[in-house]
Amino acid sequence: MFNRILSWLRAPGARAELSYSAPNQLPPDNVAGADGLKEDHRTSADNTDTFRSLVKPRLLDRWLDRVVEISGSEYVYLAFLVGLVVWAFLGVRYGTSTTYNIIISDAQAIINLVFDASLMRQQFSQHDNLVMVAGCLRSRIKIHKRMLENLIATGRFPKIDSEGFRMLRQTEFVAQLPKQTWTTKLSGLVSAFLGHIFTIIGFWMYWQLYINSATSGLMVFLLAFLANVRERHNPYSIECLKAIWKADSALELRLWKLTGDATENCVIVIPQKQRGKVQRAIDYYADLVGTLAGVVICSSFSLSGSWWLLIGTYAGLVGLNDGFVLRNICQVLGRTSVGYFCSYRWTVVFGVISIFGLIFGATAMRWTETGQLLCNSPPSTIESFFTLILITGHNVSEARQRVDLYQIYERRLKMISHVDSCVSSERCEGSDGAKQVA
């Protein structure tokens, strides 16, 4: 019993070894006994030539992923934009009120806490999906390579040089991946502006002029925008992967018909990365944040007279730490190395030390309203900066991913074209030989 409890406590942050294999592509009369992916590969595939996102076995995980998806939807994003406009107009009337500034500052801190948890889980989910895709593609590449080498060795297929391969064309599949919608393109332009180096420099030049109100509004906008732009790009990536999956499956089926090689696709093992104790601790915290645990703790505060300030202080300090951790996890998961200093593990440690410094400062002020605001306003400013860096990283990662997806798709199409041209040549030679015999 004790070991089970200990194992449960150690579970967050664990990065187990993963294994995946792509489902075999066999003609309808040869599928008996073929069960697609094994259960421990965690992939659902009713139709083996159609891409399906990773299906998580636990109901709680699927529910939390749905909550994250909703938080990044257009409706939630538009609701926050309307809220920010109302916020701005109320500021004209009540901007000099201490109570108004405290409510706005605390509300912003709570919203940030919720979005931090959402972004953390969103980041992990998208990474897990990409790892599954990489594993399945590598699994199928191995059997493609084996069958092509067999066809070349037996003299049925000639070798082709790089120039000849580049000139190959085919008409069965569309030559381009799906196009982005105009709204997605517009989000991309806004994302490029927010993540630009000059925007980040301008933020540090002018933030002190608007620290009391504009920083809070900016923070809410940035987090809502980042959640939305990630969710908006996710369906586009899935459509691209569906096109790649169909081309990849079609290539395997063509090669199978030529070689009769029904060997199951091999299992690709993705080993666990070696991590130090500091990084393991960061990953542990990140997993807890991704389960929305911080939001649950925040909601457990009793509704006393100082509830708003207390919850705002808690949310502000935790949000500051989440900003450091989000940047670290983004870099560790391999999305991008933009802002490497900001994502370094010891930078996260420095952030924790800064939090204790703010707590000591507020304690010296006997946790007055000013002391509690000290634990709210500076964290909001720093977290806004980290969110801008996150948007920069998202832009770089998204651009790189689009290039990778296009190159993978283009290469599959050229390989299909090569196989079809070789089969056509075989048939022509066979027909010529039959005529000569006759």
UniProtKB/TrEMBL annotation:
* Any coiled-coil regions, as ranges: none
Protein name as annotated: Low affinity iron transporter
BP terms from Gene Ontology: transmembrane transport
- Membrane spanning residue stretches: 75-94, 186-204, 210-229, 282-302, 308-326, 346-367
Q: Which UniProt keywords apply?
A: Membrane, Transmembrane, Transmembrane helix
Pfam families documented for this protein = Iron_permease
Q: Where is this region: Disordered?
A: 20-45
